[in-house]
Amino acid sequence: MSFFHWLATGSSRGIYLEQKKEPALSKPALPFYSAATLQSQPFQHGFDITKPLDKKQLTEIAAMAHIIDEHDGKALAKKLEQCPKKKISVVCADAIDDEPYVSSQINPLLHHRLEIVQALNWLADAFEADSRFIAVYKNMSALDTKIPSRIESVEVRRMQGRYPMEIRAFHDLGSDTLIVGTAALLHLYRAVTEGRVQTTAFVTVNGNCITNPCNLEVTIGTPVSQLLERCGLSLDPSFVVEGGAMHGILITDPEKTAVRADTRSVMAFHVDRKEQLYNCIGCGRCIEACPVGLNPQKLYQCVTTHHLQKAVSLGLNHCIGCSTCSYVCPSRMDLSYVISSEKQKLSEKTEQ
Predict the structure, then answer these.
(1) Which end of the chain is flanked by fewer CB atoms within 10 Å, N or C?
(2) CA 290 from chain center: how many Å?
(3) pTM higher than 0.90, yes or no?
(4) How far apart, in Å, are the Cα atoms of 118 and each of 67, 123, 152, 156?
């Protein structure tokens, strides 16, 4: 069975994750600006915003504002430039935060809903899309903030399913759908109405040793160490990651690692090493949970014993790096990191 078939039909595979988004989600994002933001000068795009803006005008404004879409890390202007080559039937605002702790896309939606919906409508009207909607993750509980079913007549569609939900949800939408992150839409609104260049990113700072979990609107280029200092540490972190708790990238030097335009979260965790066993007990949980239908335990064994060809035959190249296997492993083996690292090495060798 192919990788894409698993994504389309394997909704019963994967896991439901405890979200742990509060109290960061319910509080508005706090400004954390440096001089680069405070001294940024507005630009003049010269378009009459009392009239509907067309595709070319919106693309030019996005380019002048240097907007990066946090949904995929791409320049928004380039995404819009590519759209005329195909029919856009649906425009979707991505507010799916399906990873634990992370709320940096749904938080701007809840606290800047009118601005984000206005920008969504501009894009949908410019591309003459048949429909538009906002995508959120349904499987969230214990939230202090209610998620509305509609915002200014735009549907808020609750996407349901097991993790990794975001990958599945957008794979099913089709190539005629333009997907833009909620933060990018907010930056587009600001660029159109105020001539503001994007100098900030919305970042969730969270984890089990963060004293004050929150969302920050932080100046791009700010060292991660300053975010940790701003939110406080109740314990010395065992590790700090950029991105989600499931498949974030390890930050080895927070002082030299800067926030980028597409940085969505910074997580700090304390782990009791005594709880880690490191030996497989053969429970098979990783096999049951893998959303792509792989056998992570066998892949791990092949990779660590240097049987690369066997690992490839078992589907190494189909690993999506979601870390579901590591999450469910009772021995706390770092299955995902080892497997995905070997996949990356193989990919680099193939490209050379």
Answers:
(1) C
(2) 20
(3) no
(4) 17, 9, 9, 14
What burial class does residue 126 get, using C-beta atoms within 10 Å of its C-beta: 0-12 exposed, 13-18 middle, 19+ buried? buried
Q: What are phi and psi of 190, to 5 degrees?
A: -65, -35
Q: What tens digit of pLDDT does each residue of 240-258 get?
A: 999 888 878 889 999 999 9
Say which CATH architecture domain 200-274 belongs to: Roll (3.10)
Give ∠ CA 298-320-271 in degrees, rounded to 5: 75
The answer to whether 278 touches 304, Cβ cutoff 8 Å, is no
For 100-156, how does the pLDDT look when each residue is reduced to its tens digit (9 = 90+)? 899 999 999 999 999 999 999 999 999 999 999 999 988 776 566 678 889 989 999
Instruction: Give the integer Cα–Cα distance in Å for 40 and 42.
Output: 7
On the 0-12 / 13-18 / 19+ scale of CB atoms within 10 A, 252 is exposed
State the number of CA atoms in the 13 A half-sphere of 298 facing the CB.
14
With contact defined as beta carbons under 8 Å apart, do 84 and 176 qualify? no
Identify the three-state secondary structure at position 313.
helix
| CA distances to 25, 175, 258, 337 from 212, in Å | 12, 40, 20, 29
User: Which residue in the block uniquely carries the two structure tokens 């509980």?
Assistant: 141
Spatial strand order in the sheet of 131-137: 150-151, 154-159, 131-137, 90-95, 177-181
Q: Domain map of the chain by residue range?
A: 37-194, 200-274, 277-347
Size of the chain, expressed as the number of residues it contains: 352
Alpha helices in the chain (DSSP H): 3-9, 35-38, 55-64, 76-82, 106-111, 113-126, 165-171, 182-194, 224-231, 285-289, 296-304, 308-313, 324-328, 335-351
